[in-house]
Amino acid sequence: MAIEYLGLSEINGPLVVLEGVKNASYEEIVEFHMDDGTRKIGRIIEIYEDKAVIQVFEGTDGMSLGNTHTRLTGRPMEIGLSPEILGRTFNGIGQPIDGLGDITPDVKLNINGLPLNPVAREYPRNYINTGISAIDGLTTLIRGQKLPIFSGNGLPHDKLAAQIVQQASLGEDSDEDFAIVFAAMGVKYDVAEFFRRTFEESGAADHVVMFLNLANDPVVERLLTPKIALTAAEYLAFEKGMHILVILTDITSFCEAMREVSSSKGEIPSRKGYPGYLYSELATLYERAGIVKGKPGSVTQIPILTMPNDDITHPIPDLTGYITEGQIVLDRQLHGQAIYPPINVLPSLSRLMKDGIGEGYTRADHQDVANQLFSCYAKVGDARALASVIGEDELSPLDKRYLVFGKAFESEFVGQSETENRSITETLDKGWELLGLLPKEELDRIDTKILDKYYHETVR
């Protein structure tokens, strides 16, 4: 039997304190009823003796210490799910906002998920094709992987996310079910409209589930959005056998919301004002990616975060790098040269790439081409540094060829249009075309048999 309490002890921002509570539990959902008929919901985030601290999702406007009736529901936050969610758009707490009516749920699931036994995980193997050469060729995304994009304010991560949603597939010869769960946290209205319009116009909307938390929505709601999106992804993957790609943008907004709520609770801050449990909260989200033994589907994550002041040592990218299996780094200098997508390949990596490419997955020469492109592009940096000191005219003929290679690599391999969807074969062939700008003896990272088969000198 649910107990109803009259009145509150304290209201502080999005938090309220209720005294005299019995049998309450952490993460329990609470209903508030005001005298004017307004209804709000919240969740218990802290319990101390007979006091419960409750986050109110819709904010505490209109609530007072005396006019509020509080009822503990005895259950955690749940979301109703069915295959009908494909092609639908929801707000940050899972309510439909596309005007197509409510979902008829097959099942209700706890948004906090269940911890995945590490022994039950299967090692990720097959790749996901994004159609973007800098990702597919050099930092390949593997099913079940978590591969974040490190961006900065003003960089085109929104365009890149939209392009990945439109182009991502399991490869040309796959007949398995594939879908995308897209969650936006703290985005402006025009950005949300950009995503919605882009997906609809491209025809991708049919296999996308969207969760949109806007910048003017309550801060507390932002903390739930990624959890709700991942619960939907786990349902489609592990209950319905689909391969799901989850794109979360912007993780920085999620962390800022966490810092704001932590400050309201009066907690002692850690690095740069973020709570000490920032690492465990991020790990709770990221570790919900993977493949479970005996179940047909998979959950792959691309979290996108904007680095404050482009600082890769900031707590959010720093902790994200510890938990995830690599990163894709966007570069302001390349963006300034009008190169899209401005992916800086040298600090970017995919730790699972080596096990999901090559013979039987992409093409036998993939690993060698990637290694050689990384090596040659690193030497481009040395040649440019030397040219800045002694002048380009004084460089050796070989260094001049490296400069030509570097410019072509950035504009033709890394750079591509927003609508260009390259297959893995096109990406690798483009890599060979650019390697042909260099003498054959410089290509020391490629097996001799592969080199003899694919190398052709490119004259420009």
UniProtKB/TrEMBL annotation:
Residues covered by the ATP synthase A/B type C-terminal domain: 355-455
Keyword set, alphabetical order: ATP synthesis, Hydrogen ion transport, Ion transport, Transport
One Gene Ontology term of the molecular function aspect: proton-transporting ATPase activity, rotational mechanism
Record-level GO cellular component terms: proton-transporting ATP synthase complex
One matching Pfam family: ATP-synt_ab
Any Gene Ontology biological process: proton motive force-driven plasma membrane ATP synthesis
Extent of the signal sequence: none
InterPro entries in the cross-refs: ATP-synt_VA_C, ATPase_a/bsu_AS, ATPase_F1/V1/A1_a/bsu_N, ATPase_F1/V1/A1_a/bsu_N_sf, ATPase_F1/V1/A1_a/bsu_nucl-bd, P-loop_NTPase, V-ATPase_su_B/beta
CDD domains the record matches: ATP-synt_V_A-type_beta_C, ATP-synt_V_A-type_beta_N, V_A-ATPase_B
Ranges of residues in domain ATPase F1/V1/A1 complex alpha/beta subunit nucleotide-binding: 131-350
Keyword Metal-binding in record: no
Sequence similarity: Belongs to the ATPase alpha/beta chains family.
HAMAP family: ATP_synth_B_arch
Keyword Ion transport: yes
Gene: ntpB
Organism: Blautia wexlerae
SUPFAM superfamilies: N-terminal domain of alpha and beta subunits of F1 ATP synthase, P-loop containing nucleoside triphosphate hydrolases
Chain coiled-coil ranges: none
Record-given protein name: V-type ATP synthase beta chain
Matching PROSITE patterns: ATPASE_ALPHA_BETA
Occurrences of domain ATPase F1/V1/A1 complex alpha/beta subunit N-terminal (ranges): 9-66
Function: Produces ATP from ADP in the presence of a proton gradient across the membrane. The V-type beta chain is a regulatory subunit.
